[in-house]
Amino acid sequence: MSAEDRNIKRMAQATNMRDRSKWRKLNGKEFNIYTPIALVIIAIIWTVAADAVNQPFLFPSLKSIATAFVQAITDLYVLRNIGITMRRVLTGAFYAFIIGLPIGMIMGYSKTMLKALAPFINSIRQVPIMAWVPLSIIWFGLGDGPTIFMIAFSGIFTIILNTISGIQDISKDFYNAARSMGANTLDIFKDIVLPGSLPGVITGVRLAIGMGWMSVI
Length: 217
Hints:
The chain has about 220 residues and is an all-alpha fold.
């Protein structure tokens, strides 16, 4: 058997192993049987309660909800508004990312900047998000401006904190090894800080998008 044939065989074997692993998650020890059982129980309780109340306006049945959902996702007016909302959320999350990432990087890498900026970040972060609504309307007027500002403002601190946490989780051994080989600050930042902080950054962006949906007004 040639080297190429052996490589092809190993690739096929690896693919089969991944397929079996996925199947075990769906139908093996890792499969969570309690979730579908809980959903069935909730559906039964909901159906019985809706029939007992018999007031669709106060307690609609699952059938009416499913019918309304199908009508909503096939209505162009609803889909258009969903698209507008998604655009606002993604735009706000993007602004939160481009502002929060550099701040989080600087604070996570430099203890001096962390001590200098942390009091201001924590003070602003404690202000309730709804308290910024009047100011956002004054600053940006009516339309998309206040909404995007609120979405970005709600996510920027999540990105900052998770970026700081991701950088601080990097082992000091990586810094020491890089410095021992003559790496400068830019090399350390490019080859260690950026790749090492990615888990924290990705988590921060994911949470920022989730918080952005809660901040849509």
